[in-house]
Amino acid sequence: MSREGQALDIRVIGLGQAGGNLAAEFHRRGYPAIAFNTARTDLMALSPEWGTPGLEDSARVYIGIAGYDGAGADPDYGRSCVKEHAELILGRTREHAKDADLLVITAGLGGGTGSAVRELVNIVGELSIPVVCLVTLPSESESGISKVNAVRAINELLESELDGWIIVDNARLASLNQEVVARSYFSKINEQIIAPFDDLNRLNERSTIHAIRAFDGEDFRKVLLSGGILHYDVLQLKSESLDPNTILNPLLASLEEGKLMPSGFDPANISSLAVVIEASESTLTKTPMMVFDQLNDELKRATEGAAVDLGIYQTTGNDDTTTIRLISVSRGLPSRIQDVVSSARDEGRVLSDKMHERLPSLELGDIADLDLFGRGTRKRSANRTRPMPVQREVELKQSPTRREAFSVGSPNANSPSGVPAAKASPSVPPSASIPPASPTGFPAAAPASIRPRHFSTPPPLPMMDQKKNDSALEAKETNAKSEADKGAKKKKGSKKNSSEELPSAEVYDELVEDFRKNQNDKKRTEIAEHLENDFRSPHAVVRFYAIDAMAKIDRKLFESSLLAATEDENTAVRKIAKAALQR
């Protein structure tokens, strides 16, 4: 615990790329820090060999699933990764934050990993330690996906049990750093974010200032943990003497539009406010003490009764520059946040419409009906035998044929009734599927055989050109069904058709479109129940179309069915379900 005159013992956890970079900047300033990330590439970039700031190998922790490199701006995948590694995260955090005064979690809210920060907050909430989140909003130039991710993540964070929220506006930082070169841009803005925070914490460790009215570590902790939206800033004044308005006006202007935080803090929402004034001996000699008492009263009036804490320090030298450090706690969101929400809504809708547009078809005319290959050519090609590679021959013998994978009504060899039974599965692949670590300490890339494949449309059903083959297959399926139903009571004169007409992919595309466009909850529920029923169909192709439609509508809404589908007897159904869950 901190004592008067000492800085708070703060430990830092970074999540995602931006969070890791902020954690590294904290570490450069002497704060113990670790970084969790789903991307090995981002973790490698934090290596000290790339310059400062940097984190050692033990402080860079990979939490991806099955070796995949990054979340691809998908917060669902990011949340899955954090949940899957909850035990690891909790263990590392417990060890890392032992006996600390405060835990600061840093994250950028536009990406897939950083925007899953609430899951991290929930995990470390088991520890008896105060937690403050320092998060960044995407800049104006970033995509609609980043903005939608960010506003959703902010909403989730506001519902979390946190002791403080620090929201940094990258759009504001970008406007103030337009001439900074790319090579040093991010390190510079990270320094701008953390330096004012660090200076307040280490205020009383500086030998170049003398306290007239101290603002100590416990005062700083009291403001940080007041349970609101934090705003901090550093202001510079040129004046030989001070008066209340000289100080008050820049403070109120900072709340309206500061250098780091979103603009538009309403002073009336401020519940706690601390102001630290650092002035030279000559300036303080010309400034009566009553000026600071009047400033205190003016701040209370402007904030409609906030708790005000005023620190006064004398600096060495006779420079007439006065530094004012401000930190406040608001019970309301700044107006700029609503602007970000509006931008996310507009760009998100446009982007969603674009992503779900159908590709146009070509007008081929009579070209579509041209026969460019004679029957003789086809017959010779079909009769020609070619040697097959040994490896491919083994694979074919060990896996079902394409016809078997999508056969209509084919019985399940593992089910007495011939109807496949869906099995529950964990939300993420088991830890045994995570590849072993490489010599560098990070998991190796996942084998191609377990990487997700994304189907825009399901594979076509196999074609059988000869009626004879169709008849033989139908007879085989009928016999198999008869064997499964052997011993059951038969109705006199009844006949069971061995094949039935199945819905096409277009039917399910229409269901997806109806669900998205229809705002009627009853209609949406009917569509959802329709898809759930189709997922229980004995036909693999119906199950495939149903799972594909669920993934397009809402992976979270149909999560239980998608999880069950990862254990489906059909290879294609399993693949599309796994791909949906891992996107």
Mean pLDDT: 80
- Taking all Cα atoms into account, the compactness measure Rg is 32 Å
* Tally of DSSP β-strands: 11
Poorly predicted sequence stretches spanning 5 or more consecutive residues: 378-386, 388-473, 480-499
Taking the alpha carbons of the first and last residues, their distance comes to: 43 Å
Count, helices: 22
Strand residues, percent: 5-15%
Which structural category fits the helices and strands?
alpha/beta
Shape: elongated
What does the main sheet amount to?
11 strands, mixed
Q: Helix share of residues? A: 40-55%
Arrangement of strands in the largest sheet: 3-2-1-4-5-6-8-11-9-10-7
Question: How does this structure look, described?
Answer:
- The protein is an alpha/beta fold.
- It contains 22 helices and eleven strands.
- Strands 3-2-1-4-5-6-8-11-9-10-7 form an eleven-stranded mixed beta sheet, with helices on both faces.
- Helix 18 runs antiparallel to helix 19 (521-535) and helix 21 (559-565) packs across helix 22.
- It is elongated and about 100 Å long.
Question: Top keywords for this entry?
Answer:
alpha/beta, 11-stranded mixed β-sheet, 11 strands, elongated
Topology readout:
Blueprint (H helix, E strand, L loop, with lengths): L9 E6 H13 L4 E5 L2 H6 L14 E3 L12 H10 L1 H11 L5 E7 L8 H8 L6 E7 L6 H15 L5 E6 H7 L5 H20 L7 E5 L3 H8 L4 E10 L5 H13 L13 E11 H5 L4 H13 L4 E9 L5 E10 L4 H21 L19 H9 L6 H9 L3 H4 L61 H18 L20 H13 L3 H15 L4 H14 L5 H7 L5 H12 L1
Parallel strand pairs: 1-2, 1-4, 2-3, 4-5, 5-6, 6-8, 9-10
Antiparallel strand pairs: 7-10, 8-11, 9-11
